[in-house]
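User: Design a sequence. Structure:
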């Protein structure tokens, strides 16, 4: 499921998502992690790491802020 700014609600906080964002150079990148917060200015996102031995995503870093102007798309991810 692809989420846009208008459809992204607080219900998605704590869920595993794929965040596609635009870097300053204009390139798009995607990361998997947990949505930690949604504000009118942007989203807080904590990157996850995939553990092959456990076959699931594990918590990684503390949350970083991504302003809406740099967020290209957010998609839900099934937990591994």
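Assistant: Done.
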């Amino acid at each position: 499921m692809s989420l846009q700014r208008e459809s992204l609600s607080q219900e998605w906080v704590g869920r595993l998502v794929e965040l596609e964002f635009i870097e300053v150079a204009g390139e798009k990148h995607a990361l998997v992690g947990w949505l930690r917060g949604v504000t009118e200015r942007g989203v807080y996102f904590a990157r996850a790491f995939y553990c092959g031995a456990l076959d699931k995503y594990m918590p990684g870093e503390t949350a970083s802020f991504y302003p809406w102007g740099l967020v290209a798309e957010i998609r839900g991810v099934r937990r591994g």
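The first strand starts at residue 2 and ends at 3. The radius of gyration is 12 Å.
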